[in-house]
Write a structure and sequence with these properties.
heterodimer, A: mainly alpha, B: 7-stranded mixed beta sheet, 6-stranded antiparallel beta sheet, 29 helices, 31 strands, 48% helix, 19% strand
Chain lengths: 60, 796
């Protein structure tokens, strides 16, 4: 069980790293607008699909 | 008809003709080459899409399956030429990272296809680099070139069927608000991470970790608990301190108390070697409470953006006489100065108080006075900001700026008065007062008992256990959870709630006050009764043509009555002020004159052939569609319904009779101030209204609800704003409020039962650390589940 003396600090360090990452992301404004990016990614896909189809058709 | 329909017009399966743009069934087709539209609005948007090469919009829309609200709301073309003035550019364009930004609040964004379309703006306008939409507050942020033609940009947006409003972003206030939100999120994040980690070690302890590890894990969880105690939990301490300062009680007091006592006890046990640490419970408590509060706050913020609203009133353009060029320039209303000569076009709002320079004008003053009838004003009369010009274009000379005008003063009074509201103490606060009392007395009594029976050590341990077990977690969660859930439901039905406690209050208030004009009635004239209908029908075309040149609201109402009439040519057409119109056809004089038989509740207009009266039109302000339904619902639910109105006795009486409202509950001829006085004479009241003449009264009432009308003023003054189908949704709102209240009570009962069990068990010394750890999240969980089950369903 002595391995715990290494694993526990390691786990804590990992935890600290993620909290730091979260703080950084928040301060960068990643969570300011939660609705639009979610919508945007759907839209971009739609357009890519339709464009790809066009290109494929043209290619043929 | 089907033959006439071109191939690519959307023939629906049922065989009706559908609009190319909005897919609606067409009533009055507008043909344009091979395409058919239902209205000019759709045609304009379609052309704009075609010109910009954005016809892909239809594909995007179809794929997303969007089928609602597609018809653009183009009411009138706005003049955006003011946007190119240097004065405007200096005021509204901001620069950040060496890029120029312009922020616009765009009215009419409702779906994903709208985002797609507006973010495609750079592809049709080469003068802008990028366009980003924030879907949740409808704000479009465009980066522009230095010499960008802003007028063109605004016109393009307007052509696509949206209505742009310029926003001046107060960057410092915005930054401050943003930092505050970030801090809140970080507090939750830290609490979440720490509590999850503490849990890991606590489970090991509960599962029976050996002596050596349990003290190590104890120390680890102690250190993990520190950021929660000294960072995440700060808001609770702040609220407690301010509550103590103002000598009020709120739920944060027992919460802070539990946090502090619990951590001290845990720390003491850490040294004394006992395994009762409680750090896990405390951290989870803080995390859950912060999260539930954030949820409530987020649901308030959605659909409500004060930045956008603040600027709405000064959005529109106005024409100002330019002495140098001797013509009218379009400027932003913000730049109006005293002494300016303005031209207010028909159907536009007067931007500031001033003196009329035109010969005469018809105005709708209902925003300020509540009087529904159009008011006539002569040359040199003073007119007030907020009035709508119903007649022809009028000229006026500004003598007061908007902030000094009557309307401006009402608005500033409303804003300064925001703290003068009567509030009902929330049920949670009431219960938490008893809660604190009971927990304190039980613990003191048990301390004394255990001290004599078992000695000091046991006494301290058991007493502290009681305080911690009776942790007010579920109690603190009960109300915010129910309210957040109900507010989400409300938002789906177009109800914007600004003040979260008002949802709780509605169901507990008995007196409800309605404004008449614009709230219960349409606020527009319409023909409600005609005498000699058949005879009048014969002269339909003549009546229509007589009124066709007049811009008077009564004339328009009569025109509406003449459905399917044709405009025919009349001779010697004359408009006689204050009387009516007259004209000749085939040497016979026809006229529409104000009736001599005065009838106070109706406005009557006679139709005369030579001098013989053929028939009479009776016009009045009509009741809204769901008024009756709402009032009878209120009666069933034991509300005491009142009407307060600036209108005269007869008009109010007529409405009250139709709605079956008690005569003693009517108040006519009220000024905004007397309305407010009346409202404050009641201890608890709901005020339902629109417009500025209700704004002060709204502020004085316990809960204020704004329906329709001017969104900006309504929202500034009121707690709740109903955006669509207001009267129908009010029934839903009241039901929702009742449901919220029962749900809160249910949650409180659940949490009290848990506390009762917990305290009893710990009194007898049965509560183990594991038991406490299971009981706590279980009580929170059951509150969450109860809320979700209780509040569901939509207005239909």
């Amino acid at each position: 069980m002595n391995i715990l003396y290494i694993l526990v600090p390691l786990a804590l360090l990992l935890g600290i790293f993620f909290v730091a990452a979260f703080i950084w992301a928040t301060k960068k404004g990643q969570f300011d607008d939660l609705d639009t990016p979610a919508a945007r990614i759907v839209l971009d896909d739609e357009i890519c699909i339709s464009r790809n189809k066009k290109e494929r058709k043209e290619g043929k | 008809m089907i033959k006439a329909a071109p191939q690519n017009s959307n023939l629906s399966p049922r065989g009706s003709l559908n609009c190319v743009h909005c897919n609606d069934v067409i009533k009055f087709p507008v043909y344009d080459g091979e395409k058919v539209f239902c209205c000019n609005g759709c045609q304009t948007v379609h052309h704009a899409l075609e010109a910009g090469g954005l016809l892909e919009y239809y594909k995007v829309r179809d794929r997303l399956g969007i089928s609602e609200n597609l018809t653009p709301q183009l009411k009138s073309k706005e003049d955006f030429s003011f946007m190119n003035t240097p004065q405007f550019k200096e005021e509204f364009i901001t620069s950040s990272n060496s890029k120029l930004h312009l922020k616009l609040y765009v009215e009419g964004i409702h779906c994903l296809a709208c985002i797609w379309l507006l973010e495609k703006l750079p592809s049709i306008n080469t003068e802008i680099y990028s366009a980003r939409i924030n879907f949740s507050n409808s704000i479009l942020d465009v980066t522009i070139t230095e010499d960008c033609d802003l007028t063109k940009l605004a016109e393009q947006i307007s052509d696509l069927g949206y209505k742009p409003h310029v926003i001046k972003s107060d960057s410092e206030a915005l930054k401050l608000q943003q930092t505050e939100e970030h801090t809140k999120l970080i507090r939750i994040g830290v609490a979440g991470a720490c509590s999850a980690n503490i849990m890991l070690y606590s489970i090991a302890i509960y599962a029976g970790a050996g002596e050596q590890f349990s003290s190590l894990f104890g120390w680890v969880s102690f250190f993990l608990c520190l950021p929660v105690l000294f960072y995440s939990a700060i808001p609770f301490y702040q609220n407690t301190i301010s509550a103590i300062k103002t000598r009020t009680l709120n739920i944060d007091i027992p919460i802070s108390f539990a946090i502090i006592i619990g951590s001290l006890f845990g720390f003491y046990n850490l040294f004394s070697g006992s395994k009762h640490y409680y750090f896990d419970s405390l951290a989870v408590l803080v995390f859950l409470l912060l999260t539930s509060r954030l949820l409530v706050q987020k649901s308030i913020q959605k659909g409500l953006n004060s930045d956008g609203l603040a600027s709405l009133f000064e959005q529109s353009s106005i024409k100002r006489w330019n002495e140098q060029t001797l013509q009218y320039d379009s400027i932003h209303t913000k730049f109006i100065q005293v002494g300016d000569k303005l031209l207010v076009e028909s159907k536009k709002t007067i931007p500031s108080d001033g003196v009329i320079l035109s010969e005469q004008a018809y105005l709708n003053n209902s925003l300020i006075t509540g009087e529904s009838r159009p008011v006539k004003a002569k040359k040199d009369d003073t007119i007030f900001a907020g009035a709508v010009n119903l007649g022809e274009d009028l000229e006026l000379k500004v003598n007061k700026l908007f902030i000094d005008s009557t309307l401006g003063k009402i608005i500033s009074e409303v804003e300064n008065n925001s703290s003068s509201k009567q509030r009902i103490q929330s049920i949670t606060d009431k219960i938490s007062r008893y809660f604190i009392g009971v927990v304190f007395s039980v613990s003191i009594l048990s301390f004394i008992y255990f001290l004599y029976a078992f000695g000091l050590d046991v006494a301290i341990e058991r007493t502290l256990a009681i305080i911690i077990v009776s942790c007010p977690c579920a109690l603190g969660l009960a109300a915010p959870l129910a309210i957040a859930r109900a507010m989400n439901k409300a938002r789906q039905n177009g109800i914007i709630i600004k003040n979260d406690s008002s949802l709780e209050d509605i169901a507990r208030i008995n007196n409800i006050f309605f404004d008449k004009t614009g709230t219960l009635t349409d606020g527009n004239f319409s023909v409600v009764k005609v005498s000699e209908k058949d005879k009048l029908n014969e002269y339909r075309d003549i009546i229509y043509s007589l009124e066709s040149s007049s811009n008077h609201p009564i004339a328009r109402a009569i025109q509406d009555w003449c459905t399917q009439a044709n405009n025919i040519e009349l001779k010697e057409h004359k408009e006689i002020p204050a009387l009516g119109v007259t004209a000749k056809k085939d040497e016979v004089t026809y006229s529409l004159y104000k009736s001599k038989n005065l009838n106070e509740s109706f406005t009557a207009v006679d139709f005369l052939k030579e001098k013989e009266v053929i028939g009479t039109f009776f016009l009045t302000d009509q009741l809204k569609k769901n008024s009756k339904e709402l009032i009878s619902f209120l009666k069933e639910t034991n509300f005491n319904t009142h009407i307060v109105s600036g209108d005269n006795d007869n008009a109010v009486g007529e409405v009250a009779q139709e709605l079956n409202i008690d005569k003693s509950n009517l108040c006519a001829n009220q000024t905004p101030e007397s309305k407010a006085q009346l409202i404050s004479s009641y201890k608890q009241s709901i005020m339902v209204g629109d417009g500025a003449n209700d704004a002060i009264a709204m502020k004085k009432s316990t809960v204020s609800i704004a329906v329709s009308g001017a969104m900006d003023i309504g929202l500034r003054a009121s707690d709740i704003y109903l955006t669509k189908a207001p009267l129908k949704n009010m029934i839903y709102l009241i039901k929702l409020s009742k449901l919220t209240n029962t749900s809160i009570k249910l949650n409180l009962v659940i949490s009290l039962i848990y506390n009762l069990i917990g305290v009893t068990l710990s009194l007898y010394g049965y509560i183990t650390p594991l038991g406490a750890a299971v009981l706590m999240p279980l009580s929170s969980l059951s509150v969450v589940v109860a809320t979700l089950l209780k509040i569901k369903g939509n207005s239909q």
